[in-house]
TrEMBL record:
Organism, as annotated: Streptomyces zinciresistens K42
Name of this chain's protein: Transmembrane efflux protein
Swiss-Prot/TrEMBL keywords: Membrane, Transmembrane, Transmembrane helix
Chain ranges of the Major facilitator superfamily (MFS) profile domain: 213-412
Molecular function GO labels: transmembrane transporter activity
């Protein structure tokens, strides 16, 4: 590991909460695909399986920001443990209902309950921000977390699908629940690095989504999420049309690997000036990287194209996290990060649905038009909202000198 990354873990407790965060985040990439695999194996109903997966994503999009808002107000330990308990109980209900063939509405209720799962990634980033706010190490920390996200998306689906198909159908979601339980309860046991709650500030303040800059980021990431959701679905269909459905997981893993490699390098760089131009450049790069997918004719070419496309993902995500810290009050940082994840989740659901419709109508290759269109929408939203992002943020708990410095930087 390069020295800047080693230096992150010089402070006590950083290794512990980072390891707990890795375990707690694995269900993000395992649960949805695990439910699809489990239900399709047990019932043969792919429509039901997809609807249940979408229910989990949409429930998380609704509940996630509210859970994070409570975390900002009362602290991680007091909120995450009961929220996780609700999610785990709903997961048990889902496994029982699927195994014993209970009515469909029970499955949907269970999936809605699973959506109470906390955004562990936002909790870990909030801990890094509390430790390294205002230092170059925070950029490195956000880069490291983006790499961890990609590691989860490389190995999570492989574990979930592999266990459910090789062992028993419920194995994938069951392991995801175990990861969630161990990760969250281990994380919340580490009190020394837990960010200080802001009960009075959070109680008086409106939702973090009222911040104009955050609105731009969330709207843009709805379109960005549509890219991710569409690429996943179309790639599976593209491989299936060529009789090699099993190769889809490897191709998608290369997409995540490209992002992982770029995130590692990006974390070693030190940038001067405002982050807003880098963010807009990243959005444009993600959109442009979708164009070659329209020309793919075979899986090897698709694998190369997706690896290159992935290289634009992590740098854009890292810069987005830095912008959230500048445009959201410190007392609502966890909520702000979760809103961006929520926009991403909503986009994934929309992109998946749109891609499925196009595939059914015109085939898998035409389906790559969906991420291309989503990328174009992300660019348009980014340009339209750029002035809100580049505008000096409101006072958010820093010193007067810090806010004056930022205002002068934008006026320069």
């Amino acid at each position: 590991m390069p020295s800047p990354y080693r230096a992150l873990f010089a402070l006590p407790g950083t290794k512990g909460f980072s390891a707990a965060g890795l375990l707690g985040r694995m269900p993000l990439s395992m649960m949805g695909i695990g439910v699809v695999t489990m239900v399709s194996q047990l019932t043969g109903r792919y429509g039901l399986a997809g609807a249940l997966s979408a229910t989990i994503a949409l429930a998380a999009a609704v509940a996630g920001p509210q859970v994070s808002r409570l975390v900002d107000q009362y602290g991680q330990r007091r909120v995450l443990r009961p929220a996780t308990a609700i999610s785990l109980a709903a997961g048990v209900l889902l496994l029982l209902a699927a195994h014993y063939g209970w009515p469909d509405w029970v499955l949907f209720v269970a999936c809605a309950g699973i959506g109470c799962v906390p955004s562990v990634g936002a909790m870990i980033r909030a801990r890094w921000a509390a430790l390294y706010r205002g230092t170059p190490q925070l950029h490195t920390a956000y880069s490291f977390e983006s790499v961890i996200d990609e590691v989860c998306f490389i190995f999570g689906p492989i574990l979930s699908i592999g266990l459910s198909t090789a062992w028993f159908p419920e194995a994938g979601p069951l392991l995801a629940g175990c990861f969630l339980a161990v990760g969250v309860f281990w994380l919340t046991a580490q009190r020394a690095t837990e960010p200080e709650p802001h009960p009075r500030t959070a109680r008086r303040a409106p939702s973090a989504l009222r911040a104009p800059g955050l609105q731009v980021l969330v709207a843009t990431f709805v379109a960005t999420g549509a890219i991710f959701g569409a690429v996943d679905v179309v790639t599976v269909a593209f491989a299936d049309e060529r009789g090699r459905q099993g190769a889809a997981s490897l191709v998608l893993a290369l997409y995540a690997a490209g992002s992982c490699a770029a995130g590692l390098v990006f974390g070693l760089l030190r940038f001067k000036g405002a982050p807003e131009p880098r963010w807009l450049l990243g959005i444009c790069a993600m959109a442009v990287s979708m164009i070659p997918l329209l020309l793919v004719g075979n899986l090897p070419f698709l694998a190369v194209a997706l690896f290159v496309a992935g290289m634009a993902v992590a740098p854009t995500m890292i810069t987005t996290m830095s912008l959230i810290e500048e445009h959201v009050p410190r007392a609502q940082l966890t909520e702000g990060m979760t809103w961006v994840s929520t926009g991403l989740a909503v986009g994934v659901a929309l992109g998946s649905a749109a891609a499925g419709w196009v595939i059914d109508s015109a085939g898998a290759r035409a389906g790559y038009g969906v991420p291309a269109v989503a990328g174009a929408v992300a660019v348009v939203v980014g340009f339209l909202g750029y002035r809100r992002l580049s505008r000096p943020a409101q006072r958010r708990g820093g010193t007067v000198e810090q806010h004056s410095e930022r205002e002068e930087r934008h006026m320069a």
